[in-house]
Fold each of these.
Amino acid sequence: MEQCNFFYAPTHLRLLRESQSEALPYTPKGRPTPSKIKGKGKATFDPDFESEREWLLLKIGADKLKADEELAEKLNEEEYVANGEGLECGCCFGEYAFDKMVQCAEGHLFCRDCARRQAEERLGLRQTDLLCMDQSDCNAPFPETEIARFLTEKSLNLYHRIKQGKEIEKAGLVGLESCPFCDYACVIENDEEKLFRCENEECLVISCRKCKKTDHLPKTCKEAEDDLRLNARHMVEEAMSNALMRKCPKCHHPFVKEGGCNKMTCNQCRTLSCYRCRRVIQGYDHFSERPGQPRYGEAGAVRDPSKCPLWDIDLEKLHADEVTAAARKAQEEILSTDDNIQIVKQDLEVDLPKPPPPPPGPGPGQPGYNGGVLPAEFMEHVLPMPIPQALPIVVPPPIHHAPFPAQHQYHYHAIVQYAPMHAVAVIHQGIQPII
């Protein structure tokens, strides 16, 4: 029912067509599912269901009646031909049953298919003189009763409208005006009347008698035309906004990416989508790269052209290209439509985003500058770098301390015995104590 917008009648007709087809889209059950409802309850009245059921029964009956008529005509025609009683068409010379033939005012017989093709060609030229096609140069017209037999309902209505319009033109009535949206015409005696009200049930449009457009009162014709030009400009701007704005494929929540990869997660329904193709995805299998791999454009990067890139080289350029393409397409569509509005290309000019400048390259002293090599004018002044040599190992000479004199040994020991620790340190540095 979801595919039929939850309508009962279209769902029933679709299931009926599928059940009559050779390849069923489902496997029929061997036995019906037992009902879980026990006892009898009062059925609720659903007006929508009853109206669709009534329409469905009428349609099924009409389709069955039409099928029976077609089958009867086919059997009747086969019987006529088998018995040699078929009549020859004066155009295609085929044999048909008498009830399949139409005739001009002089009695020349033609099959309905030939008469209908000739009539549709004449109506395409807005001509209503449907004349005989016999090879005897007969110019007798087909009667109205015969025309109603071989023309379809749509072609018959067109025939009457064209014929009525030509008769009104020949009459030359004063004050006669026609609807700008259909063939309806009438006489308006009040010259102060500003609106034309079409009474054709298929049209019923109220239009302005001056500019021949839909009713725009209380605005003047010029004000209405200016508003239409402004609306056309707004359509271009709306197309540009839709090109820049992404929407979740599931909940249609809008978002725009400012950076990062193209794997987007909706913050409303958590649906994963691709920022490039705007479709629902399952994970990183949709992209040509994986996280941690070299990005497209970097050294060692390998990209599958059949998949979307995980990273955008220049996001600003991508947005600018999409917005510009959407604006150009909207302008072409508006200029190609014929709605009686004098819109020129200057009326649809909008400020398009300028492509961003290319990213700056590495400067002097940075990796990758000039391909990693200094210019030749700098290299000729650079002296060759000497090869580093191993430095010689220098062993420092040993330090010898002079011995204390013998007469001072006793005092030395006394000093060492009673001197504080900082004095001992001074003595060990080679300074003799004062006696």
Amino acid sequence: MARPVVGYAVSITIDGSVQSQGSASVLFKDDLFVEHLKEEEAIAKVRSEVNSLPAGVDEKFPDGKLILAEEIEEGHVSFSSLKLYFSALGGDRPILFFSAIAIGLLATDLLDATMTWYLGYWASQYEDHPASEEAFQAESLNRINQYTRAARTFHNLNRWISVRIDFISGLFTASLATYLVYFQNQKASNTGFALNMAGNSLERIQGYIDIEQEPKPTQRGVPPAYWPASGEIRVENLSAKYSADGPNVLHDLSFTIQSGQRIGIGESNQPELLSGTLRQNLDPFDQYDDATLNDALRAAGLFSLQSEMDEGRITLDSSISGGGSNLSVGQRQILALARAMVRGSKLFILDEGRGKA
């Protein structure tokens, strides 16, 4: 593309060293340089063919935006939010809870109606039977004494609990209002409105519950207990996209990787290490002994980088910072490889396994 306007050209290899340089007319006669240009032109042609669409087919773009409008519930509290609130009242047995409430309310009204009838029936008995004043007084005093013993204790406890609950509730509300008004630089009117409308948090909770989630696993996706029996990987007609309404980035990809075969593809990332000791990183659930862990470190090549006499040598009790920030990139890769070897996995996926310490 730039050949007509190039006056001086430099050819650079992959490692950054200069392969050849000179005027464009001389450099374009170099066989290696010309072959490299042909390869680039072929790659560019293939990419243009892949990215181009057939005639008459319009390219579809996803409807999503970088910044979406905030979802705000308007109007009355939705039924789903009320259902969430009432289901939380009943706990694990909402039917039993609300049935008990309904029966209690019904029993209260029934007792009120029955009490009036019973008082009339009790008063009518004096018309048919002679009154026993002394026996009635003795029985009444006996029952009053029994009632007083229980009622006095009950009312004392009721007052003790009620006063303290009201005091704690008022203290909490006053503290919250003081914090929102004097420490958050909010107007008192806005704070009062926010406290009064705090019930709207039900809508927020319901909104978080209704967030789109990944589909739950099915029985078809559960591998057998012996899986993986070998290190072979077989992919058939794999298609993938970044979003549900986006275009496919993989189109019916099929490949097979045999057991023991090594392939390389992709770019490198940093291995992840946890904050703690090296032993906790290799065996977080304490399933293996120190001999197994040291064998994995030796097989991964850690001991070949340090000797027994090194003062700062890495051992199982060495402290590892979050993300392995106190180790070199090569040491982190070795520890990540040793962690995989401890598990005895049939398949290893190494992200740039050629890194050096």
Amino acid sequence: MNKVLLILLLPIAFVRCAQDEAHSVEATVQPEVPVAEADTTTIPVKEDHLIETIDTLIAPQALIENGNTADFILECADEVKANAMLDIDYYREEWKDVPNPLIATYRGNDFGDYFHIQFEDESGATYDFGFGNNTYGDVKLFLDETDFQDNPKALNKTYQVYWAWKISTYPCCQGGYETVKAYHPSILKLELE
């Protein structure tokens, strides 16, 4: 009788354990990285993890230095993926030796083929943050965020530009204006030099 009871109860125990396991799975959340108000430019780097910031994610250093180009692209239509990868390859090469912070003068923005936010360093090299997921700190580059008219108080001023590869959503590629979500050079904060 005990054996029969055991045989009948065993399947019930297995089903019950499987249900408990399914309900006990919890999302793991990386603890918030405290950001000191006095020093919002310090970014801790974890080689194998994304770092959660106030509003988005920053690419890990290992991805920037050694990652595959395809890993920079998070969302992209199949028909533009090859062009998006060429763009990322171009930006990786152009930005690989850019100092952080970058000391550069704000030269303004324009809507040419795409939106451009132009900075120029003392050697004349230009840096375009138009596709970036930018935050400017206390600096106001534009009079308002609807027409992006340059703020005369910010124009032609030199800044320390703190930047990182952040997740950005932007139009791509070669005039196609397909939306791509990828890591892109972005301003974290500006400080007047």
Amino acid sequence: MGGHAAGEVASRIGVEAVLEHFGGSSADGEAALRNAFAAANTRIYTEGSGTMGTTAVAAVLQYNLLSVANVGDSRAYLIREGRPRQISRDHSLVSDQVAAGLMTPEQARNSMVRNIITRALGHQATVEVDIFHVGLRAGDTVLLSSDGMHGLIEDAEIAEIAGMLTPDETAERLVALANERGGIDNITVVVAQVDELDPHSPQLANDEAPGEEHVAEHERITEPLERPLTRTGLLLSLVTLSILLAIGGWSLYMP
């Protein structure tokens, strides 16, 4: 939408808007994500007059409760005990057809229209954001990726690599593997691993508390923040490090 250059501009504007919004936000995870995405959408739409856009996925961790927001087909995965599970839902034409029983997942992966998305930040004056909540456990891995990765690497491969390598090594290996297989998008991967639980945190989900996050981002550099893990439930460093605004080869379909 607007070409690759416009996509890069939209991505940059989106990152800046989301990070600026989170910097002053005291809202809970879901509200903070919705407000940040709305701010990013408004800025991209205003500056591009609806001619540019970007897909986006972001995660906020408060204690052991992970809140994920997505627009488009960038993805969030939870890897638990070696098993991958997609947290987010793709806003794409093929995903809608699979949900309606008109296409199998295998057909969707090989479809000529698999890059057509149905939502993007900046395309319209307002945007609908999907929010998902997951209670994390010690040993869990959370992975965010642009569509350039998951279109070339199977979910089982992602989980296998994450189980063998550190978060930083996992992010680097997945980007390299996607490029080896012909990736043409600006591929971005964020990996966070929960190592241990904090016994002093409130019991919010699954009677578990949050762990220490190891966050690695490859192909987009941001300055890490100190992790303000307190009983007041402040957002963790994962908030800013996990803002992922993907750009690249997609078209927008509006039914």
